[in-house]
Write a structure and sequence with these properties.
The protein folds into three domains: 217 residues, 2-enoyl-CoA Hydratase, Chain A, domain 1, CATH 3.90.226; 133 residues, no CATH class; 59 residues, OB fold (Dihydrolipoamide Acetyltransferase, E2P) (Beta Barrel). The longest helix has 27 residues. Strands 10-7-5-4-3-13 form a six-stranded parallel β-sheet, with helices on both faces. It has a five-stranded mixed β-barrel with strand order 14-15-16-18-17. It has 454 residues and is of the alpha/beta class. The protein has 14 helices and 18 strands.
Length: 454
């Protein structure tokens, strides 16, 4: 247990160091700040457009990506920031922080929902509305912004009403400039989870235009007027220089950890590795892997809408696996454990109220469950083989072995058994034993064997 505690402390320190590095990683490789002097920022010869690709759920890692991008375009005095967005939604706190960063930006932010078939769902729809310019690919969709709780279930009536009213109050000032139809559509997305196509959003003036690709976006933005805190600005993008601003490695890793399939695999591997470490202490590898995997899985579980009741089933499964190893009969408990593990994983991630995009793959759950069952069946088989194997060491291991006499026997003699020379005496009824006769050990008496002639 001391070793497990040390591993937990080590993992916590590693995560703190990881977070520190992540917090300091706000500039891409090769970033050079714009040149400043007493009069302000030296204007560039050509307008600069930074392009981001936000593809994933709206959560803290995505929030950091948005905030880092906005900070960089402000430092470099860019003409605009274009964010190509594709998201099924995410948590409300990250959405609020992103909206605040967009509205506080001194550089125009353009949200482009793309490519065709992409969706700005739930929180993504409200982020799209918060941008100074909103565009969509012709076959993209937007909407379905009704709030849900952390487990993916609908909120109770009072809490749902409060949350919806807060969301509508937040978004109303952002879309009122677009007219009554856009305002009504935005409110329907929150009240009734309504979703619309790009053409329907354009018809209601919820977005500014549709564009087939990024070049089309740049073409339509040229000469576009946007209202910023310091007044009306006209965008110049026809001869602009474009640069891509990609997610950092750490941002990508944290975003991956919000994938329910990855979290499920980390959770399974972590529990298995810790179980091996506790059952067979002495190796650091399995314990270290288990602690790290569980720490990463807990991070993902804290962000995903999951049903925690599923953890009970998964815990019961591993208890059944352990009991099967120690039980008198084997097989039934392992089978029950596999069933409990599969049910627990499905309840944890695939409950009816959890959004479809957060569901874990059913074939993956079944496959991992069967693999774990086979692993424990192999462990049980190995334990049984060891339990029924003949004794290989100690006095008992000598009984039944055969050898041959090195001398003629009187009361005693010498025999060679298992490449070892022993003093031996004939067992009762053995008869006369001569040099070279084959003998079998029937008893061990101190340091002397009793043998019979074969």
């Amino acid at each position: 247990m001391k070793r497990l505690g040390f591993l937990l402390v080590f993992a916590a320190m590693a995560l703190l160091a990881f977070q520190t590095v992540y917090a300091q990683t706000h500039q891409p490789d090769g970033f050079v700040p714009s040149v400043r002097h007493a009069a302000g920022v030296m204007p560039a010869a050509q307008p600069l457009i930074l392009i981001m690709n936000a593809n994933g759920t709206i959560e803290p890692a995505m929030q950091e990506y948005f905030q880092r991008g906005i900070s960089i375009v402000e430092q470099r005095n860019a003409e605009a920031l274009i964010i190509q967005l594709q998201t099924p939604g995410g948590d409300l706190q990250s959405m609020d922080n992103i909206i605040q960063a967009i509205r506080a930006s001194t550089v125009p932010v353009v949200i482009y929902v793309a490519p065709n078939g992409a969706m700005a769902g739930s929180a993504g729809a409200l982020i799209t509305m918060a941008a100074e310019v909103s565009a969509m690919a012709p076959e993209a969709a937007i909407g379905a912004s009704s709030p849900i709780d952390a487990s993916g279930q609908n909120l109770d009536t009072t809490l749902a009403t409060k949350q919806k009213e807060i969301m509508k109050a937040t978004i109303r000032p952002l879309v009122e400039r677009r007219g009554a139809a856009a305002t009504q559509l935005a409110q329907d997305m929150i009240d009734n989870a309504k979703a619309v196509s790009a053409s329907e959003a354009l018809q209601a003036h919820l977005i500014d235009f549709t564009a087939t690709d990024m070049n089309d976006v740049l073409k339509q933005l040229d000469g576009f007027q946007v209202t910023m805190p310091d007044g009306v600005h006209t965008l110049h993008t026809s001869n602009a220089t474009t640069e891509n601003l990609d997610m950092t490695l750490i941002e990508q890793l944290l975003l991956i950890l919000t994938d329910s399939n990855i979290v499920f695999i980390l959770l399974s591997v972590g529990v298995l590795a810790l179980q091996i470490e506790l059952s067979h202490p002495g190796t650091w590898v399995s314990g270290f892997i288990g602690v790290v995997c569980l720490a990463l899985a807990i991070y993902g579980l804290g962000l995903l809408p999951v049903n925690w009741f599923g953890l009970i089933f998964m815990g019961v499964a591993f208890v059944l696996f352990i009991l099967d190893i120690k039980a008198a009969t084997h097989g039934a408990l392992t089978a029950a454990g596999v069933g409990s593990f599969i049910v627990g994983a499905l309840v944890l991630f695939n409950s009816p109220g959890v959004p479809q995009f957060e569901h874990v793959s059913v074939p993956l759950v079944v496959g991992v469950g069967i693999a774990i069952g086979l692993l424990f069946a192999a462990i049980v088989s190995f334990a049984l083989r060891v339990r029924h194997a003949p004794i290989q060491m100690g006095v008992e291991a000598v009984i039944g072995k055969t050898g041959f006499a090195k001398t003629d026997f009187g009361l005693t003699g010498q025999v060679l058994v298992g490449s070892e020379l022993w003093t031996a005496e004939p067992a009762p009824g053995s008869g006369t034993i001569g040099k070279g006769d084959h003998v079998e050990v029937v008893e061990v008496k101190g340091l002397r064997l009793k043998v019979r002639k074969l």
